[in-house]
């Protein structure tokens, strides 16, 4: 039996050969893992294309990933909505341990963490100590969800465009 590594409620994840030290939320309540992806499409040959993050993220490299090894799943979000997600296996490194993990590709631009690590990725490899914390994402402006960044730039404009959806105020 291999030694399990202790991680906290968050971790830094490196996508081998792509991008290093990205903050991730460790969530034992979530079954699957997810990563912020953009420009997701399937070409005429059936290959899936995507980019990790998007150009508003400090972790975005613009590198397109192409694979024919993918699946789809209907996933229920924390809010209760069911959506279809493409799922891919990516090689990652957490606390020096290199593993293959399956990630659902989704727009996580409004989440504090661009990556969610769920039970299936953790199982048999890591023990979670909820008192341990690696990053301070919630207080780090570069990782503030995009909506909060927009709101801070011009709160009134944000209110009219996002909250009122362009409807004239009363």
Could you walk me through the main structural features you see in this protein, from its secondary elements to its overall organization?
The protein has 170 residues and is mostly beta strands. It has two domains: 5-138, Beta Barrel (Cathepsin D, subunit A, domain 1), CATH 2.40.70; 140-170, no CATH class. It is 12% helix and 42% strand. Helix 2 crosses helix 3.
Could you provide a short overview of the structure?
With 170 residues, this protein is mainly beta. It has helices at residues 119-122, 146-153, 155-163; strands at 5-7, 10-15, 19-26, 33-42, 48-52, 64-67, 70-76, 82-94, 97-106, 115-117, 126-128. The strands form two sheets. The protein has a six-stranded mixed β-barrel with strand order 2-3-10-4-9-8. Strands 1-11 form a two-stranded parallel ribbon.
């Amino acid at each position: 039996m291999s030694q399990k590594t202790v991680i906290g409620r968050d971790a830094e994840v490196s996508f081998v050969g792509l991008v290093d030290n990205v903050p991730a939320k460790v969530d034992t309540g979530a079954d699957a893992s997810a990563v912020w992806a953009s420009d997701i499409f399937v070409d005429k040959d059936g290959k899936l294309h995507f980019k990790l993050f998007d150009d508003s993220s400090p972790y975005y490299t613009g590198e397109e990933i192409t694979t024919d090894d993918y699946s789809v799943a209907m996933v229920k979000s924390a809010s209760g909505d069911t959506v279809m997600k493409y799922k891919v296996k990516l090689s990652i490194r957490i606390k020096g341990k290199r593993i293959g993990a399956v990630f659902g590709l989704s727009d996580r631009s409004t989440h504090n963490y661009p990556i969610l690590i769920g039970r299936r990725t953790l199982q048999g490899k890591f023990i979670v100590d909820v008192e341990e914390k690696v990053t301070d994402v919630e207080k780090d402006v570069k990782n503030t969800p995009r909506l909060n960044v927009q709101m801070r730039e011009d709160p009134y404009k944000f209110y009219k465009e996002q909250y009122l959806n362009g409807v004239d105020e009363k």
